[in-house]
């Protein structure tokens, strides 16, 4: 099984804090890998500006590193900062890790007149081009993200040892939101692209569980021919793309995500104040209904964090915290490790109909029920 941990706080903190929470839950996973997403990133030596983006990935060879560097320059990206990890390579099982890429670029000047949505599309196209280039050269580049204030790290090995290998305890790299997942996909062999969290255009999710409806969901998403709906080395990557499709493509409220992946029964919709709309949505998106036990944790570009469970509710997850600092984890001991100075009596474990939200202002939790009425956005 996987173990998941997320912390969201007003004051940026070291990702190593979340790794210690993973260590508290160590009996629940096999230690085969680590995936980290940092959002609202701060560097000790450099201040991000609105026109900056951060590239995260791995150049596995020196030739790949120089090829990537030259290509980004040719596309108009200017390097503004390079985060150098204080590495202890002897702690890393894999030996083809020439350079862990966390590089801040100034966006091309030709993009100055683009809208935020257009910039998101351009960044996605650049990331996909890097991925294709790495694949064409035997997998010598692995790219995880290219976005404004996001850093992603993925590696094989025990999570705390990976953190030690990259010197994450030094505090030079901090974030307001950190997501961590503690297991590589070992069902079909190690592939860093199969490691949670998954990311597309500022949207990220990670999952504990299995999605036995993976094949029809994957085929439906691939059939949309939407850029970025590729890969699927893990059945859980579909959760990220469904969230992207609902919020970015259909432009529906976040409440509707749960209605798509685990819709209510017809008799429940008959009594729902938005029942007619939800019946239509269920029909239109019926191929996106998930199956299997799942706990899904996600984050959005505005630092909103969320937790949903499947109908079976056989994968645990708990959320707790206080104003200014909140945590979600597979086990209560993980929440304890991340926000010890909270009232544990206020911890919340969602039921099948709930979506738990940690808003960007982090004052208090919001809990949505699928039985609640919601408001659709006005058409432009």
Report on the architecture of this protein:
The protein has 380 residues and is an alpha+beta fold. It has ten helices and 17 strands. The chain has helices spanning 16-24, 62-74, 116-136, 159-165, 214-223, 237-249, 255-261, 266-270, 275-284, 332-338, and strands at 4-13, 33-39, 42-43, 52-59, 78-82, 99-106, 141-147, 150-156, 173-181, 198-200, 203-209, 294-299, 305-309, 318-322, 325-329, 354-358, 366-369. Strands 1, 2, 3, 8, 9, 14 and 15 form a seven-stranded antiparallel beta sheet that branches. Strand 10 and strand 11 (203-209) form a beta hairpin. Helix 6 (237-249) crosses helix 7 (255-261).
Summarize the structure.
The protein is of the alpha+beta class and 380 residues long. The chain has 10 helices and 17 strands.
Detail the topology: elements first, then pairings:
Layout: E1 4-13, H1 16-24, E2 33-39, E3 42-43, E4 52-59, H2 62-74, E5 78-82, E6 99-106, H3 116-136, E7 141-147, E8 150-156, H4 159-165, E9 173-181, E10 198-200, E11 203-209, H5 214-223, H6 237-249, H7 255-261, H8 266-270, H9 275-284, E12 294-299, E13 305-309, E14 318-322, E15 325-329, H10 332-338, E16 354-358, E17 366-369
Antiparallel strand pairs: 1-9, 1-15, 2-8, 2-9, 3-9, 4-6, 4-7, 5-6, 10-11, 11-12, 12-13, 13-16, 14-15, 16-17
Helix pairs in contact: 1-10, 6-7
């Amino acid at each position: 099984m996987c173990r998941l941990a997320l912390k969201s706080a007003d004051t940026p903190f070291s990702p190593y804090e979340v790794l210690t929470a993973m260590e508290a839950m160590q009996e629940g996973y096999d230690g085969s890998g680590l995936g980290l997403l940092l959002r609202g990133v701060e560097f000790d030596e450099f201040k991000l500006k609105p026109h900056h983006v951060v590239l995260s990935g791995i150049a596995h060879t020196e030739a790949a590193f120089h090829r990537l560097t030259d290509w980004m320059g040719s596309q108009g990206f200017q390097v503004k900062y390079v985060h150098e990890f204080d590495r202890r390579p002897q702690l890393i099982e894999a030996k083809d890790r020439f350079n862990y890429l966390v590089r801040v670029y100034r966006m091309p000047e030709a993009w100055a007149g683009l809208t935020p949505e257009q910039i998101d599309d351009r960044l996605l196209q650049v990331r996909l081009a890097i991925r294709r280039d790495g694949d064409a050269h035997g997998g010598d580049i692995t790219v995880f993200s290219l976005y404004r204030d996001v850093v992603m790290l993925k590696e094989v090995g025990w999570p705390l040892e990976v953190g030690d290998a990259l010197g994450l305890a030094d505090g030079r790299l901090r974030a307001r939101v950190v997501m961590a997942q503690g297991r590589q996909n070992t069902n079909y062999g190690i592939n860093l692209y199969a490691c949670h969290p998954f990311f597309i255009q500022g949207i990220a999710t990670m999952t504990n569980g299995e999605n036995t409806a993976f094949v029809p969901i994957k085929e439906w998403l691939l059939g949309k021919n939407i850029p970025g709906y590729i890969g699927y080395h893990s059945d859980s990557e579909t959760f990220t793309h469904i969230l992207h499709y609902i919020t970015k493509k259909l432009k529906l409220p976040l409440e509707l995500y749960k209605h798509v992946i685990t819709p209510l029964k017809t008799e429940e919709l008959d009594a729902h104040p938005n029942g007619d709309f939800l019946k239509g949505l269920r029909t239109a998106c019926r191929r996106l209904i998930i199956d299997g036990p799942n706990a899904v944790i996600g984050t959005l570009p505005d630092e909103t964090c969320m937790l949903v469970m499947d109908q079976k509710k056989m994968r645990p997850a708990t959320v707790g915290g206080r104003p200014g600092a909140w945590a979600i984890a597979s086990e209560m001991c993980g929440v304890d490790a991340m926000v010890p100075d909270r009232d544990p009596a206020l911890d919340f474990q969602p039921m099948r109909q709930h979506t738990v939200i940690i808003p960007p202002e982090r004052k208090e939790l919001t809990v949505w029920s699928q039985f609640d009425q919601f408001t659709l956005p006005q058409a432009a």
